[in-house]
Amino acid sequence: MARTLRLMNEQEALQHVARAIDWFGGAIAISATGVGIELGLFEALKERGRATPEQLADALALNGRAVDVWAKTLVHDGPLEPAGVGEVALAPVVDLPACAPRTLYNLAPLFEFHARFASRDFLDLPAFFRDGVARPAARHGLPLVRNVARQTASMHAVFASTVLPALPEVAVPLASGGTVLDAGCGTGDLGIQVCSEFSAAHYLGVDLDSISIAEGRRIVAATGLEERVRLEAIAVEAVAPASVDAATFFLSLHEFPLEARPSAVAAVRAALKPGGWLLVFDELYPATPLEALNSGARTAIQFQYEELLWGTVVPTANQLDALLYGAGFSEVVRRPMLEGGIEIVLARVS
């Protein structure tokens, strides 16, 4: 009996070891893919169709042995495949996540995020576990601002063109020339997308990060939408009462410090005209270890870990409800969208 238990324990241990080895392989694949995107190796293969590592290295003025190791690593992991004698090519449709811009399939900005920012932040996590002192994302400056803008660009486009028209609570006032307030707007790309889809709509984006606002204003100026897309480096509490027709926290509520959230949500409620709706699109964190087993919790769990060092706290569903009702919203509803792929939270001012 003791021998059987020992064998069972060893088998379980081997399963965990095998899982850990897969994790290591995933980390290497993330690094290699990020390198390939940053150096233009994927783009070069897309243009050529197939090439030897030596040809790629010569074309991009790179180290030949390094490119050879890169190619064999990604052939093993799947993004590349053998093609002829000594040549490699992109695996089918790999160009979508690695090359094609502004689609939901494009993961290039996320690979860049992990390679340039998350991997460096992870080195500081042990210190954070000991002292609990956050290292704000602002330390990464404009490069991170631009990376986050690229990460969210396709989501903003799909949201404005597909999700928002199916939400009459928000779409109707915007189509009639109303104004939407975006709390924690970043560079304000959401405003560009919304005002491009709704020709009469107006957008007010507010964010305390002056770097994001300056970058956003530069981008808005190039679109010719300055009259309808306004960005302000102010707190949401500074927005005039009853001045907007709709509002949103679009992947931003979790960025507000815990102690500032009640005031921020209450300020958004005050800024809404009677009958106006707040739309919250954000991850919701599992409240218990058991909930963490749900496959639907994966994104929130990963999101929270990536931003743990920054002091980010992703709210649970109950915490979000408490915030909304505590701020005086009279009705809170959840609306599955895109065949249940995402869930929008709507809160109404009576």
Please describe what this structure looks like.
This protein folds into 2 domains: 2-99, Arc Repressor Mutant, subunit A; 134-348, Rossmann fold, CATH 3.40.50.150. 51% of the residues lie in helices and 15% in strands. The chain is built from 14 helices and 9 strands. It has a 7-stranded mixed sheet with strand order 5-4-3-6-7-9-8, with helices on both faces. A two-stranded antiparallel ribbon has the order 1-2. Strand 4, helix 11 (210-223) and strand 5 form a beta-alpha-beta unit. Helix 1 (2-39) packs across helix 6 (108-123). The protein is globular and about 70 Å long. The termini are far apart. The model has no long low-confidence stretch (mean pLDDT 92).
Stretches where pLDDT is under 50 for at least 5 consecutive residues are none
The rounded distance between the terminal residues' Cα atoms is 67 Å
The value of Rg in angstroms is: 23 Å
* Biggest pleated sheet: 7 strands, mixed
By secondary-structure content and strand pairing, the structural class works out as: alpha/beta
Average pLDDT rating? 92
Total discrete domains? 2
User: What oligomerization state is this entry in?
Assistant: single chain
Please name the CATH architecture of the largest domain: 3-Layer(aba) Sandwich
Helical stretch count? 14
Give the strand order, joined by hyphens, for the main sheet. 5-4-3-6-7-9-8
Strand content: 5-15%
Helix content: 40-55%
CATH superfamily of the largest domain: Vaccinia Virus protein VP39
CATH topology of the largest domain: Rossmann fold
Report the top-level CATH class of the largest domain.
Answer: Alpha Beta
Shape call = globular
